[in-house]
Design brief:
The chain has helices at residues 16-24, 37-56, 86-97, 105-112, 117-131, and strands at 8-11, 29-32, 61-63, 66-69, 74-77, 80-82, 141-144, 148-151. By secondary structure, it is of the alpha+beta class.
């Protein structure tokens, strides 16, 4: 009841009353045997899709004076919208999805479609100029020497 893990009940009990009981117990979907393997796969994909949408749908990330909406890719400071490039939006989405997790330059390059890892350093520098009071001593977007970068929310 408190977990956000999606649940698909797969059972031999196919009576409507059993399906209702399973769904009332908290299952996200219910599939009775016999079933087609393709149907199982499609139901799993649908559950995961709904779960991802629920997790990211209205989630705004707040840090300092900033609010970032990862779904719309909008950043505001003290309620005023800030202009971001598509690369900066991509980086913020990656970092805000995993605060406190160090992400390597190579992974950032791969996930943003940047061909060279050092280009990430340039993008990080530009992003820091927008989100840090002192880009030389960052509070939110820090370098982890020899490993990559880490985002710290408040």
């Amino acid at each position: 009841r408190t977990s956000q893990v999606p649940v698909l009940m797969l059972t031999a009990l196919g009576d409507p009353s059993e399906r209702i009981r399973g769904l009332e117990a908290g299952a996200d979907d219910y599939l009775a045997k016999p079933f087609e393997p393709r149907e199982l796969l499609l139901r799993i994909e649908a559950i995961l899709r709904r779960s991802e949408q629920a997790q990211t749908g209205s989630r705004e990330i707040r840090y300092g004076a900033f609010v970032f909406d990862p779904v719309r890719g909008l950043l505001s400071r003290d309620g005023k919208p800030m202009g971001l490039t598509s690369s900066e939006v991509a980086l913020l989405r990656i970092f805000t999805a995993s605060p406190g997790l160090t992400i390597s330059r190579a992974e950032l390059a791969e996930r943003t479609g940047t061909s060279e890892g050092r280009a990430i350093d340039v993008q990080i520098t530009r992003l820091r100029r927008k989100i840090e009071a002192d880009p030389k001593n960052p509070r939110f977007l820090q370098t982890v020497w020899g490993e990559g970068y880490v985002f710290w929310a408040d």
